[in-house]
Design brief:
The protein folds into two domains: about 15-45 and about 270-365, Aspartate Aminotransferase, domain 1 (Alpha-Beta Complex); about 45-265, 3-Layer(aba) Sandwich (Aspartate Aminotransferase, domain 2), CATH 3.40.640.10. The longest helix is centred in the last third of the chain and has 24 residues, at about 270-290. The chain is of the alpha/beta class. The termini are far apart. It is built from 13 helices and twelve strands. The strands form three sheets. Strands 2-8-7-6-5-3-4 form a seven-stranded mixed beta sheet, sandwiched between helices. It is globular, with a radius of gyration of 21 Å. The chain binds pyridoxal-5'-phosphate. Pyridoxal-5'-phosphate binds near residues 91, 92, 222, 227 and 232. One of its GO terms (molecular function) is pyridoxal phosphate binding. This is Histidinol-phosphate aminotransferase.
């Protein structure tokens, strides 16, 4: 910090490792298939696109501050109370509200071994201390999480379904976890992939209704195909929402974001199509990878985790996929160096991935 005499960042900030996004380009290639960021290959609802374009006519006006239209759409679709909903620029912003409001210097924030990489970033930015709890064979162990709670614990972050594992805690395990947490600990259920898990999955919303210390977050970036627009939401008790609204900037979502998200939420046919296509090709790719002798857990999300015998093989296979214009994700940063996370694309993309990995494994077995 010698260039900044006297100017000192807050404690924790210089410990943050910059977020690594999924690659989008391969040097020397114009046409690639990006399967590295869990994006929806079918894109958003046409109705969302049209609503966004219409909203551009209002770009000279400030947006509403209360997000009532979007909160009402979310509430009607999910059968929940709009007064318990808060909207953010991606669910990342809602996770940030929670961390900023409820954790600070001297506090501990629990996350699990393969949990989402934003949690340590947000924790350190708030000056708090990340505490990482081991998973059992790529599954969150609720009892291990409960055993890690101390009087200093303020937040437990749970990615469910897990990213990059794709595994999931079911409603009874979630309840067990929530029941075991002391009242001073906020459980954040990050359901970025919840819509892919089951038709009408709502165990996270039920948990919020049963426990005053639970925040459920969802996003428009994954099944709704709006990652580029940045919209997410949270559901919690009115008291928690009231706290978080104090740190939310009044104009955190633009008119265009709000209009697109509301139309996307109401287009249930599009969501259903995306869910069923994803489930079909996820199961197909899982079976294809297992036929090749690779490890692959049942995934409840829109990606699978392919496990290779070792890191060198995983990296060599990643290189072979890149040669063919296919970009997947190395997940060494998530404690899984021997694995590659592959987003479920459309049929053509899934068939190409299976074909290239099959060719790679055949060549490897020959040499
Ligand atoms: C993609 C993702 C998010 C959501 O990010 P947005 O900010 O809503 O785009 C949150 N949690 C996990 C685990 C994710 O994979």
């Amino acid at each position: 910090m010698s260039d900044l005499p006297g100017i000192r960042p807050q404690p924790g900030i210089m410990e943050i490792a910059l977020y690594q996004g999924g690659a989008a380009h391969i040097a020397g290639r114009d046409s690639v298939v990006k399967l590295s960021s869990n994006e929806n290959p079918y894109g958003p609802s046409d109705k969302a696109r049209e609503a966004a374009v219409r909203a551009t006519h209002q770009m000279h006006r400030y947006p509403v501050t209360d997000h009532l239209g979007l909160r009402t759409a979310i509430a009607e679709v999910h059968g929940i109370d709009p007064d318990r909903v808060i909207c953010g620029a991606g669910s990342d912003e809602v996770l940030q509200f929670a961390t900023q409001c409820f954790a600070g210097p001297g506090d501990e924030v629990i996350m699990t071994q393969h949990g989402f990489s934003m949690y340590p970033i947000l924790t350190l930015a708030a000056g708090a201390t990340p505490v990482v709890v081991a998973e059992q064979a790529r599954r969150v162990d609720p009892d291990a999480v409960l055993a890690a709670v101390t009087p200093r614990t303020r937040i437990v972050f749970l990615t469910n379904p897990g990213n990059p594992t794709g595994t999931m805690l079911e409603a009874d395990q979630l309840r067990h976890l929530a029941e075991g947490l002391p009242a001073h600990v906020l459980l954040v259920h990050d359901g970025a992939y919840a819509e892919f898990a089951d038709d009408g999955f709502r165990a996270d919303l039920d948990l919020v209704e049963a426990f005053p210390n639970v925040l459920a977050t969802r996003t428009f970036s994954k099944i709704y195909g709006l990652g580029g627009l940045r919209i997410g939401w949270g559901y919690a008790s009115p008291d928690l929402i009231g706290v978080m609204n104090r740190v939310r900037q009044p104009f955190n979502l633009s008119t265009v974001q709000l209009a697109a998200a509301e139309a996307a939420m109401r287009d249930r046919a599009h969501v259903e199509r995306c869910r069923s296509e994803n489930a079909k090709w996820r199961d197909w790719l899982t079976a294809a990878l297992r036929d090749l002798g690779l490890g692959c857990d049942d995934s409840r999300a829109n990606f699978v985790l392919a496990r290779f015998p070792d890191q060198a093989t995983a990296h060599a296979c990643d290189d072979a996929l890149k040669e063919d214009g296919l970009i997947v994700r190395r997940v060494g940063g998530y404690g899984l160096p021997e694995a590659l996370r592959i987003t479920i694309g459309d049929e053509a993309a899934c068939r190409r991935v299976a074909h290239v990995i099959g060719r790679f494994m055949a060549e490897r077995n020959r040499t």
